[in-house]
């Protein structure tokens, strides 16, 4: 029988032991030569004759290999500047001492790189520097002395996170040097021991410190340090025996242990602190590295999203793409996600899926379900800076009542490193353990790419079943959610938006990007609708000698892909570097130019085909009006040709005449001939000055608005309800305000709650004047100084029949950490405001009763925010803004920010935008707000026409009508994806806009064979839309906020 020996040494205090352990394990300790890191690599060789370096500086390998490379030594020169590319040819000669051993090349330039074979195959990415380093490339697993190896390294002169400073602003002249270019051999025994110690140290210090296992872990590490002598291989074996024995103790029965599924990933921002061009290389570097790791670790499973990145890879790195397809078939590569890029707060699903865009709120459960996605995963809510989100695994209920199974990783990161502390967080932070004892761990370096490292996979192998820790295993995301479905008890439901209490400034930053996005969305929609009209008309007229119209399938796909690319979660939100936004602005210009050309082509086809039907051939001029919304409109418009004199009543400064067009058919085309009853005369002055009070007034049959000298709204009367004064006594609207905007850290991303405490009104220097008295359109104009560097010009307008008061703005903006808003105070009492989201609307509180309420001091919305009592309300609309705030009876629209990082010039320069006020009877739920907001963003499209091209009245009757049309919005008309441009099958997408069940008739003059209910992927759901009692009609019933996709099959 053995008895414990007497330990004659003093017990070492825990703090001292912890420091000793840190010194032994750390790579940067002052006592590096006494620690374990010194022994991880052996037989180090650098320079001649074993390592030969030569360089050529061109962007492409094909060009480089055909040139003469210049020989260089490791420390000979620096390489740059920022974003440059240098190709290194690496010639290695294996030293005889390495014979039979694995040979590894270590390379560190503090920048990113890619290893290429001599035949042009990308092999593996390299990451320089510290923190997310990846310095090693395995040359051969069994070296032969004297053998030669040659390969190339493509060095990109940028780090994993660009070339920025602490504020992430890029330095255009950053240079890099070769810090390491060594041939080494890994010491497998020492590395094995090191990975063991890494786990044991986590158990010692990242679990309950006073638990028996934690205290034993401290003893084991300390004893390993006592035993460790690098030059004594027997001591290494004794140390390894200690660590193996400790880690061999498992959890016993798995049933009672928390189960973690670990999935490798490398989040690659499609643009952020680098432009799109660099992302294409990051994808290849990151994903080729993961393929290599899969070969070395057969149980390793990796997941990747972002369809755009797969498309780029297939185009620029086909050999890597081919390998990914092979790994996917073997189950090691999982493709997830339903969107073109990772949208964060933006939803943009492409191909056969819905083309939605905008800030992500409560629409998502329904869209995911209709897209064939059954699960939702995120970790962003762990970033909340005021309230802790109360759920981890739950059912998320959308605005339409759809439930989707959701999981928020309790590890609170998508870039885990597979450490003991992360595993313990999975249990400590899990809010629903009593319902579901499982969690998902997403590990791998991310944002700049990279992904999992060998060290992470080594830790994962050791952590599968260790006493005192949750059980963890590699697995797919799909397997994880299927396990949740199988093993969970009843889960709680969370009904409401998953509001991120962070990054609220992104609703406003980079205003020009948001404007380009909104314009592009509506232009592409116009092309789809008008292209469908033209194709159907072309088919009907195919026997006539007027040519045929080709529906622009490829152009539309190009436009949608490019638009969705630029909705990436650092592009549309405005949090990338200036170099990235040069691409975004260029893309938006290309989309707008192309879609305007496509729209013109479709309109011309319609005009030409219809002109063939005209029996009159008399000289005349007029307009052809295209209405791409589904209801009839009457509006004041500008004649698209200058210096006309059709009515001779009013012109704008550019020489375009104002005329009133009545009853433009919804989803149809009408003609308006000059000097006829098509264009009616108006005779009433609408703008005038109140000589008593010096106020300026805009007035029509609906509204009377009174402004002071600063352009501030001091009175607004709804003349349909004459006693309704909308501005409280002493209050004002259209008050421009400047807030100090200094966030805690994330400049472009964040506006903090305290910004509301420090602001000033912009007033006192404006001089308002009447620029147009009417009778068709009345306008007031003022110019107001914002600061010594910035100013705003505003034109306030009201047309003769409009129910909207519009504010057209031109701003020259050159501020720093200032936030421009406009405020309206209303004589309305409501505890909620209603904001438009994608295909629906969402209520939010107008009070600060709780921290959850006050955290929503700045919220996102689309085209409007509405404040309504039971029988009356006012909507604040915009044409390119997304940030709102409503508190009590005060509404604000966020206009411009001025952060200085990561784009130091964000939002500097000229801006054009519009907002409008729409007072309405009844609560929002019974109003016309949605239609008004769409009209504000989708103006009538006009074409000047002469002779046979124009005729009075209907030129093309509506393709479809929804009657009644107050609740159901027909938003999309396009050819089906599988129609191949033939015009035989159409897709309609409708939605219920107010939150109540709605019934209506869908009417059409087209010869319809049948209408099949589809999902957003355009898959048939084996259900037909029933026909109505009226010829050419079909019955519609939509539940609250339901999205309905219909596949219309036309008779051939």
UniProtKB/TrEMBL annotation:
Assigned protein family: Belongs to the glycosyl hydrolase 38 family.
Protein name listed in UniProt: Alpha-mannosidase
Biological role stated in the UniProt entry: Degrades free oligosaccharides in the vacuole.
Any one Gene Ontology BP term: mannose metabolic process
UniProt-recorded Gene Ontology molecular function terms: alpha-mannosidase activity; carbohydrate binding; metal ion binding
GO cellular component terms attached to this protein's record: fungal-type vacuole membrane
EC number: 3.2.1.24
Organism the protein comes from: Phascolomyces articulosus
Highest rank taxon of the organism: Eukaryota
Residue stretches making up the Glycoside hydrolase family 38 central domain: 501-588
This protein's UniProt keywords: Glycosidase, Hydrolase, Metal-binding
Pfam family, one: Ams1-like_1st
Reaction(s) catalysed (UniProt annotation): Hydrolysis of terminal, non-reducing alpha-D-mannose residues in alpha-D-mannosides
Keyword Hydrolase: yes
């Amino acid at each position: 029988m053995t008895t414990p020996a007497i330990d004659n040494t003093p017990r070492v205090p825990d703090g001292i032991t912890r420091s000793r352990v840190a010194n032994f394990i750390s790579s940067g300790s002052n006592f590096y030569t006494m620690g374990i890191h010194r022994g991880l690599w052996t037989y180090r060789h650098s320079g001649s004759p074993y390592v030969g370096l030569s360089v050529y500086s061109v962007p492409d390998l094909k060009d480089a290999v055909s040139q003469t490379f210049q020989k260089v030594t490791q420390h000979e020169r620096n390489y740059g500047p920022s974003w440059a590319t240098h190709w290194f040819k690496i010639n290695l000669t294996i030293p005889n001492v390495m014979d039979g051993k694995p040979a590894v090349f270590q390379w560190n330039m503090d920048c990113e790189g890619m290893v290429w074979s001599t035949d042009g195959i990308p092999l593996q990415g390299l990451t320089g520097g510290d923190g997310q380093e990846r310095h090693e490339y395995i040359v051969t697993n069994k070296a032969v002395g004297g053998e030669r190896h040659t390969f190339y390294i493509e060095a990109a002169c940028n780090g994993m996170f660009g070339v920025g400073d602490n504020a992430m602003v890029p330095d255009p002249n950053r240079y890099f040097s070769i810090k390491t270019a060594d041939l080494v051999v890994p010491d497998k025994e020492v590395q094995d021991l090191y990975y063991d110690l890494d786990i044991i140290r986590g158990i010692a210090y990242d679990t309950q410190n006073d638990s028996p296992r934690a205290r034993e872990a401290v003893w084991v590490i300390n004893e390993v340090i006592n035993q460790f002598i690098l030059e004594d291989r027997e001591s290494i074996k004794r140390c390894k025996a200690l660590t193996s024995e400790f880690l061999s103790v498992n959890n016993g029965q798995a049933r009672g242990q928390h189960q973690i599924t670990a999935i490798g990933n490398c989040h690659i921002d499609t643009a952020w602190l680098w432009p799109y061009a660099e992302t294409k290389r990051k994808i290849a570097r990151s994903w080729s590295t993961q393929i290599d790791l899969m070969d070395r670790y057969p149980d390793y499973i990796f997941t990747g999203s972002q369809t755009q990145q797969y498309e780029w890879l297939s185009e620029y790195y086909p050999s890597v793409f081919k390998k990914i397809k092979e790994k996917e078939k073997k189950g090691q590569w999982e493709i997830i996600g339903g969107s073109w890029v990772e949208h964060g707060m933006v939803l943009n699903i492409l191909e056969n899926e819905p083309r939605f865009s905008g800030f992500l709120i409560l629409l998502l459960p329904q869209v995911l379900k209709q897209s064939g996605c059954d699960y939702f995963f995120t970790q962003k809510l762990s970033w909340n800076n005021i309230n802790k989100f109360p759920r981890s695994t739950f059912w998320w209920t959308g605005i339409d009542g759809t439930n989707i199974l959701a999981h928020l990783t309790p590890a609170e990161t998508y870039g885990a490193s597979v450490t003991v502390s992360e595993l313990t967080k999975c249990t400590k932070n899990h809010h629903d353990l009593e319902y579901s004892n499982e969690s998902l761990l997403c590990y791998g370096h991310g944002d700049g790419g990279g992904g999992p490292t060998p060290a992470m996979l080594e830790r994962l192998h050791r952590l599968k079943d260790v006493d005192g820790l949750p059980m963890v295993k590699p697995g797919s995301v799909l397997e994880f959610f299927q396990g949740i479905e199988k093993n969970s008890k009843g889960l709680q439901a969370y009904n409401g938006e998953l509001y991120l209490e962070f990054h609220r400034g992104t609703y406003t930053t980079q205003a020009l990007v948001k404007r380009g996005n909104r314009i592009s969305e509506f232009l592409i929609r116009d092309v789809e609708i008008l292209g469908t009209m033209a194709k159907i008309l072309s088919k009907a007229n195919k026997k006539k000698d007027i040519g045929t119209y080709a529906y622009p399938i490829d152009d539309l796909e190009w436009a949608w892909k490019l638009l969705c690319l630029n909705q990436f979660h650092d592009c549309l939100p405005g949090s990338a570097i200036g170099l990235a936004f040069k691409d975004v602005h260029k893309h938006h210009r290309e989309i707008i130019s192309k879609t305007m050309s496509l729209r013109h082509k479709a309109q011309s086809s319609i005009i030409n085909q219809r002109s063939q039907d005209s029996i009159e051939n008399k000289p005349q001029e007029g307009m052809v009006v295209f209405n791409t919304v589904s209801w009839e409109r009457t509006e004041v418009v500008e004649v698209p040709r200058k210096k006309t004199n059709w009515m001779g009543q009013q012109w704008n400064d550019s020489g375009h005449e104002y005329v009133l067009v009545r009853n433009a058919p919804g989803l149809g085309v009408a003609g308006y001939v000059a000097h006829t009853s098509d264009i009616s005369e108006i005779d009433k002055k609408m703008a005038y000055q109140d000589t008593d009070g010096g106020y300026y007034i805009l007035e029509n049959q609906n509204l009377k608005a009174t402004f002071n000298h600063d352009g501030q709204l001091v009175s607004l009367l709804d003349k349909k309800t004459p006693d309704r004064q909308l501005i409280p006594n002493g209050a004002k609207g259209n008050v421009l305000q400047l807030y100090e905007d200094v966030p805690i850290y994330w400049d472009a991303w964040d506006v903090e709650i305290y910004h509301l405490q420090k602001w000033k009104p912009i007033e006192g220097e404006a001089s308002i004047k009447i620029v147009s008295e009417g009778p068709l359109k009345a306008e007031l104009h003022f110019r107001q100084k914002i600061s010594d560097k910035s100013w705003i010009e505003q034109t306030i307008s009201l047309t003769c029949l409009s129910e909207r008061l519009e504010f057209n703005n031109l701003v020259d903006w050159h501020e720093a950490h200032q936030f421009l808003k406009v405020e309206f105070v209303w004589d309305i009492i409501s505890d909620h405001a209603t904001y438009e989201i994608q295909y629906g609307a969402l209520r939010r509180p107008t009070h600060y009763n709780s921290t959850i309420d006050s955290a929503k001091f700045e919220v996102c919305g689309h085209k409007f925010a509405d404040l309504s009592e039971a029988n009356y309300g006012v909507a604040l609309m915009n044409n390119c803004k997304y940030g709102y705030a409503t508190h009590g009876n005060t509404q604000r629209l966020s206009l411009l920010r001025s952060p200085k990082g990561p784009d130091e010039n964000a939002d500097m320069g000229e801006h054009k935008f519009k907002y409008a006020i729409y007072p309405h009877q009844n609560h929002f739920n019974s109003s016309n707000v949605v239609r008004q907001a769409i009209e504000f963003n989708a103006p009538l499209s006009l074409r000047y026409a002469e002779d046979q091209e124009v005729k009075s009245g209907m030129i093309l009757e509506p393709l479809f009508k929804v009657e009644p049309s107050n609740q159901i919005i027909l938003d999309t008309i396009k050819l089906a994806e599988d129609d191949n441009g033939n015009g035989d099958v159409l897709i309609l997408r409708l939605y219920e806009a107010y939150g109540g069940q709605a019934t209506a008739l869908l009417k059409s003059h087209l010869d319809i064979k049948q209408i099949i209910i589809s999902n957003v992927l355009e898959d048939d759901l084996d259900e037909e839309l029933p026909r109505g009692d009226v010829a050419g009609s079909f019955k519609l019933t939509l539940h609250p906020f339901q999205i309905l996709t219909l596949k219309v099959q036309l008779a051939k």
